[in-house]
Amino acid sequence: MQTDIDPRSLIGRKAFDRNGDKIGTVDEVYLDDATGVPEWAAVRTGLFSRDAFVPLEPSKVVEDSLRVPYDRSLIKEAPDFGVGRHLSPEQELQLYHHYGLDISSPAPDRDFGRLAGEDPA
Question: What residue stretches are annotated with the PRC-barrel domain (predicted)?
Fold first, then answer.
């Protein structure tokens, strides 16, 4: 993910899958608690007003849209945790597994998935 992008600027952008099919619109951006780097985007898919979490790494911002390098069907099958809340370490690990991403073992007390604009606790 381009780290020079303001995470709030992603909200409202259209998101597309690896084939160029529209997934939906970015609803929220979640930051890594330890680094402050944008890590996940919640994309409103339009299916029953559901948000699907997508990883921002290795996604790219192209022109005015977010390009996610996964098939639309995989994205729509992502675990649904709702939006507006902090992602627990267990929820984030479920997302990593869903997308087949490799993650080094986090420290047991590490928090994940702070919302952009949310103050760290």
Answer: 8-74
pLDDT digits (tens, 9 = 90+) for 29-85: 999 888 888 999 999 987 667 899 999 988 999 989 999 999 999 999 999 898 888
Short-list 1, 6, 32, CA closest to 112: 32
Question: pTM for the complete prediction?
Answer: 0.79
**Structure tokens, 89:** 């370490």
Give, in order, the Cα–Cα distances in Å from 2 to each of 29, 56, 58. Answer: 14, 9, 9
Report the relative pairing of strands 14-16 and 65-67 from DSSP bridges: parallel
DSSP collapsed to 3 states, the chain: CCCCCCHHHHCCCEEECCCCCEEEEEEEEEECCCCCCEEEEEEECCCCCCEEEEECCCCEEECCEEECCCCHHHHHCCCCCCCCCCCCHHHHHHHHHHCCCCCCCCCCCCCCCEECCCCCC
